[in-house]
Amino acid sequence: MDRFDELQIFVAILDAGSLSGAARRLRRSAPAVTRALAALEERVGTRLVERTTRRLAPTEAGLRLGEMARRVLADYDDAVREDDNAPLRGSLRITVPTVFGRRHVAPAMIDFLDLHPALQVELVFNDRNLDMIEHGLDLAVRIGALPDTGMMARQVGQVRRVLVASPAYLARRGSPASPRELDTHDIIFAEQRATREWRFRDDARADTREFAVRLAPRLIVNEIDTMLLAVLAGRGIGRPLSYQVAEQLADGALVRLLPGYELAPLPVQLLVPSARHMAPRVRACIDFLARRLAALPVLDPTVA
């Protein structure tokens, strides 16, 4: 195996914390990654990682070699990308929320591929926040607050959770005057958590602390499209994200309820594992997606 290739594999092992994670990130077989590590340890003459119960941890020698390997790889990247006009090559692996990804990210990435014919893009649709290193992801589109992970995030807009119902349902059952009246209405629940409740805050009060309203839903589903079908059919009140029903609210198919009780907006963000030594294809993709998503009329602009 090429010695430069060994360094790439070793850095991937350190980043992923496991041989299997490095294999997924590099799209290689686990045995090939294991052989590369063994060959590198034999060449260096010492153990570079120690296996713990859950992860691989670098030894002192492994930490030193890892730092040097990163510098070598960064110098190589700088050398081969001196020409800013060179075509982007390689692959991008991107995770996106299912509905938002299908409606807005996928069309943007199709256009991005038209601009860069030498690129390959893999979109991973998943509503869970996948570990980017473990799953070999270059970029993530996330909706909602993020834990402080040290990753680089770029906000492109924001959305809200909104209560909606059809005009037919409201004509038959009336509109709730406050969240606490929801217990007299038919609720269509599509949030994947054990507690059947919705949280609200009252913007009319000086004290805007959140409060919970317990629910007894008539229908519980585990994906948004079925919930929207039921709400549009006049079967009850649902709580989607605002971008998911922007068209139906605009054309009157749905009515927004209790806007004065809505929670704070949720940020829509682009996330990368690290801003250091970012590959040109990743940087170009972030810039392109940021422009496209920020221009979406279904996203509220970010408040500075």
Unreliable sequence segments: none
- The portion of residues forming beta strands comes to 15-25%
What is the oligomer described by this structure?
Answer: single chain
Q: What is the distance, rounded to the nearest whole angstrom, between the alpha carbons of the first and last residues?
A: 50 Å
Give the biggest beta sheet: 5 strands, mixed
Along the chain, the helix and strand elements come as HHHEEHEHEEEEHEEEEHHEEH
Described by the principal axes of the CA atoms, the overall outline is: elongated
C-alpha Rg (nearest Å):
24 Å
Largest sheet: spatial strand order: 4-3-5-13-6
Number of strands: 13
Going by helix content, strand content and strand pairing, the class is alpha/beta
Give me the number of helical elements.
9
Helix content: 25-40%
Sequence-ordered SSE layout with sheet pairings:
Layout: H1 3-16, H2 19-26, H3 30-44, E1 49-51, E2 56-58, H4 60-80, E3 90-96, H5 98-115, E4 119-125, E5 139-143, E6 152-159, E7 163-165, H6 167-173, E8 188-189, E9 197-200, E10 211-214, E11 219-220, H7 224-232, H8 246-251, E12 255-257, E13 266-272, H9 280-294
Parallel strand pairs: 3-4, 3-5, 8-11
Antiparallel strand pairs: 1-2, 5-13, 6-13, 7-12, 9-10
Helix pairs in contact: 1-2, 1-3, 1-4, 2-3, 5-9
